[in-house]
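Work Package 3 (structural annotation) set out to generate three-dimensional models for the target panel prioritized at the project kickoff. During this period the team completed the workflow that converts sequence records into discrete structure tokens, so that structures can be stored uniformly alongside our sequence database. As a representative example, we reproduce one entry of 538 residues exactly as it appears in the project archive.
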Amino acid sequence: MNSISQQTVVPAGTDNPGGRAQLGTIEYLLESMRRGSDFPALSESIRSVNQLADSREQDVRSLASVIIGDFALTNKMLKVVNSAFYSSFSGKIGSISRAIIVLGIEEVRSLAASLIFLEHLNDKSQASRLRDQISAAIFSATLARQVAGNIGLKNTEGSFLCGMLQSLGGILVTYYLQEEGAEIDRLIETMDLDPKAAQKRVLGMTFDQIGVSMAKHWNFPSVITGGMCRADSVAGNGLRSEELQLRLIASFANDAAVAIGKGEINGAIARDGSLNKYLKLFSLDERRFRELVDEARKEFSELNGAFRNDDPEAPTPFVSRLNGEREKLRAEGRAQGDNEDESSASRGLDNGVCAVPETGASIDSTTVDAEQIMTEGLQEVSGLLTGERCSINQVFNVVLETLYRAMEFQHVLLCLKDKQQRILGRLGFGQDIETFLKGFSFSVKYTPDVFHVAIKNGVDLYIEDTHATKIRSDLPEWYLSAADAGSFILLPVVLNKTPLGLIYADHTRPRALEFSGNRLNLMKALRNQILLAFRTCC
């Protein structure tokens, strides 16, 4: 088989053939990835998540929009944040907006990027080797976070991502370039080549370089792409550089995962073992290291269960050996939770499977339980309103997200009156929401259309078919220019007979909104929470 680097054409006069070979490898890999029909959406989702780097209100809403636009991703996220590892933060979390409030934008961003990518890999019938690599990557991420927290590093989420992504290149090669991966293995086994030398011979670059290149392609921040590079020794200023800290922690976590996977952890932490230098660097004795491994294993079990990467009846070799480490700790009486009751949840953790939360749809279900989602949303908003620090924007976000998810709307907006007596789209969720919000603007001054009728009279209106001749004449020009909905509902927000604005929600199809059961009453109850927020939080 010809290697990719041999296939790459280097133009005459090029003074950096190695760089050209690397470019050829990345382009070849991208082309292999593009053959998957969902790859463009995957890349766009990861890029969108990675562009949101701070905690501004707009970025919180934008991150929530990226996540809740994917039903399966939303359910996986809610399953993870309600798992035993995270539930100690603030009880049951029923919305992505609330998850961002409780856990922080960086934590949710890390989870989202990981779930998006690994869900893509799970779309394919996986070979055991790939599942083993993914399991090791997830564990490396959780161990990196534990080590970062232990040494007091603030950027624990950066450590999580670097720990996971340091093996990204190898995972991509296993998934997309099976023949090249097999050739690399053959060279290592038959010619006794160093792994990196074999990788360069076949691909023109190492797995590490491939991973960093792809992370840059997906807009991961420079501190993450820098932290993905291996660091095998410390020089100069030691741990003062954040990038070096991330590199060392990620390398430590990945090396520990390799040692666990090979069943060689005892030798690795011995005086002359491969992990001993890291233990000294991070001031860890063997006891504390094993405790961190156990804490990381618990979180790993939650995440691996959400990713559905492992079969509890036939765990991968890595998971089996990791659970074996748990048993060693049990035997020594050092595993946390040894005196706890063997509940179904704890048994699930021992099997590497995340227990399903009390509420919420199965993570693979495509059926939305609208009433359940709205009921949980009402409970969540009530908790926000009775909290010590009531944030009106947080209430708005949870209400709108709940409506959007429950009723599967195309758009949901909250429109409010400004000082110039205009009703403006303030915030919302849905397709191209920022552009859509800009088109939502009209004067409070009465004109005979459905928006003014709803606001003036304080009545809820459902327009079941925007294309119907009788209705078309009652839709204002600004709306016809801004929207292409087939049906929509208006829920005015009126406080003490004073109109404050309205909730607008639409579907692409006519007659798409179902009012069966208690749905309409729950929608109105959520709207009333916004009124209560104006009274309570302002």
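DSSP finds 27 helices and six strands in the chain.
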